[in-house]
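Project standup — Tuesday

K.O.: blocked on the structure for the chain from last sprint. Re-posting the sequence here as requested.
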Amino acid sequence: MSRHRIVIIGSGFAGLTAARRLKKVDADITILARTSHHLFQPLLYQVATGILSEGDIAPTTREILRRQKNVTVLQALVEEIDVEARVVKWRNHNKYEQTEYDTLIVAAGAGQSYFGNDHFAVFAPGMKTIDDALELRARIFGAFELAEIETDPALVGKLLTFVVVGAGPTGVEMAGQIRELASHTLKGEFRNIDPTKARVILVDGAEHPLPPFGEKLGHKTEEALAKLGVEMKMNAFVTDVDAEGVTLKYKSGEEERIESVCKVWAAGVSASPLGRALGEATGAEVDRAGRVTVNKDLTLPGHPEIFVLGDMMAFPGVPGVAQGAIQSARFAADTIAARLAGRKPKATEFSYFDKGSMATIARFKAVVKMGNTKLTGFTAWVAWCFLHLLYIVGFKSQVGTLVNWFFSFLSGARSQRTTTNQQMVGRLAMEQLGLGHLEKAMVGIGCPRHHQEGPWCGVGTGTALPASHSPITVNPLLPDDSPGVGCSFPTGGHFVIHFRKIK
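H.V.: unblocked you, prediction finished:
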């Protein structure tokens, strides 16, 4: 008799926890994930602001699971789940494969939601992936560099105005770090501009930052941000985003225009598109955010072999945070292990234990809510540091993070400030080429735009500088009549990708 086949889609908190929890079961486990790493998403903003490297918070999944012999890790973009045949269809580049399963765990996570205004993403990247963080790093530091060579005071002001949309934990942390970056890290490094005069504006439709933390902690956070120099636009909704800035509309009906080149979107999440596809295939209900309604044991109605976990599941009382993913994965893994052992699971219904919420504001400042316990200031910051170190996977990553924190928090310096032009323009170029979001851009041999056989080589011409600057040319190797694709960038320039078949 063949061994039981377990397929896990996703290598985030839920997927990785489930795989490790099933270490001792007599089954073959296959992890299908679109990335090769396990991302500790709560610290993405520190990658974006130069405190940590991507390797500190995103160790490779293979390295983590190298000693677990019942697990096979495959980098794969899942395109279809055939629930009747119990087959997951996926691809890696242009190689299409399928994997059969007896038990399926769907934990593909969530992406950024723009509340029906996906075109905002062109000018205001989200904060969900390593690509997002590196792009934002390039945009943030690039804004200071462009301001240094700009002579128009109005454009300098626009370049040194940073808008963060969303006053949840990610938005608060991002706004605080950009403010500290400008006030401390970059102070004295420029000759033509004063980075300390940069404006950081936090926008949200709520009455105060961190609404889930309650009014008291929200107002304390607001006070702490104000002391740092962060401007807050509460009770305000973003109605438009373009290359030059954002338009706000307040609950009072008043509108305001903010001129800004660099914007960060930290508001709203949307579950993986796999959720809606799974709902259509199984008849399960799917909410507005794309989350799948699950049974009390986290399976789908009529499909006890399919578990939906983490950010993809709609379960009463479970927030979209790491603990929700970890706890749901432990429950599902224990249920599967019990089934394979021929015994009843210890618990037949999932119950979420709320371990509290926390957010850091800046160095030595944080807020923590754990039941009736509320902490602020340095004590909360220490608790925040300890728990985040605890949940980073891998001793090497923990040590690396601790060392970087030590030097960064004590000196104000940031060691991870390297950026490239590719980081800034890559996502938009890929989308213009017809590849969609980067999470879908697993394309190899062949030209995606023209659907012709390859291989193909691409070179670019154009500029990512403001329109007021003279264009630059990069590798003008192809004739003018080459098939090309152009795209505009939020900095006001343009870029054209040309393809040539390699003979």
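K.O.: great, moving the ticket to review. The chain has 13 helices and 26 strands. Confidence is low (pLDDT under 50) at residues 436-503.
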